[in-house]
Amino acid sequence: MSDERATPSGTIARPAASAIGLTAVAMLAFAANSILCRLALAQGLIDPTSFTLVRIASGAFALWLILALKRQVRSVHGSWAGALALFVYAGAFSFAYIALPAGTGALLLFGAVQVTMVTTALVRGERLTLPQWFGFALALAGLTALLSPGAGAPPITGAGLMIASGVAWGAYSLLGRGTVDPLASTAGNFIRALPLAAVAMAAAMMLGPKVEVMGFVYAVMSGAVASGLGYWIWYAALRGLSPVQGASVQLSVPVITALAGAIALGEPITTRLSLCSITILGGIALVIVTRPNARRVAAR
């Protein structure tokens, strides 16, 4: 798989067919996490704490198995900060989907991720162009409109939890930037997150956890396939994508999730969700795809 390079004219080259295929599979895996979690929790097949524990445990096992097959088990690393961010993301994600529709949850999640990463860049001194500022403001306006009271507004508790999940995933992504071996680092973070999930599970035992067979199956599929294998495929896809392309394609996940939720769960795609989706994703796209002007590039 060849790396993405700029053409002599400065434009971004088209990714190879293999990268496009891997990217498509990865986006489906990301959307599948929302669908599987919603399937399990909306039907009361498993409690959110158990779902989180099974998801993290099966994801850790799948990633460890991949490394074992590649004979790289000793290369497992990661950090406790990354593990904590991963645990907060997964836990808040599970509790949020008790009430949120799949499409709304995915939109809030990825909107919060991008806003977190852009805000962090601003705090660190990066400058935005005028179109990027407009896009950032547009995305925030879309999130505000989605959360404002009225018909079709998501439950405030669920929305808050999903936004917290997105902030945690944004932090996890920022912590992983520059990682030499993303697969080994992700495996290490999953393994470190296991005791955190186990402690939460021990506390939840007092409330009487509920785990039915299909709920357990959905959690394993979410952890081992959609998370473990999905993240591995995504890292492979990133080798053939530019940073702009890698960020942009993730905007497809809320759309895929909303469509899949309508088909698999019978969830409606409301006018409010559609308009807010266009506003949020359009604003984020402006931030991502707008190129800095030549003066600022030269200054750097």
Could you give the distance between the termini?
Answer: 30 Å
How much β-strand is present in the residues?
under 5%
Written as H for each helix and E for each strand, in order along the chain, the element string is: HHHHHHHHHHHH
Question: Care to count the β-strands?
Answer: 0
Shape: globular
> Structural class, from secondary structure content?
mainly alpha
Instruction: Characterize the biggest β-sheet.
Output: none
Number of alpha- plus pi-helical segments: 12
The helix fraction, in percent, is over 70%
Question: Quick check: average pLDDT?
Answer: 83
Question: Radius of gyration, Cα only, in angstroms?
Answer: 19 Å
Number of domains as seen in the coordinates: 1
Ranges where pLDDT stays below 50 over 5 or more residues in a row are 1-12, 294-300
Protein name: EamA domain-containing protein
Membrane topology: Multi-pass membrane protein
Transmembrane segments: 12-32, 52-69, 81-100, 106-123, 130-150, 156-175, 187-207, 213-235, 247-266, 272-290
Main location: membrane
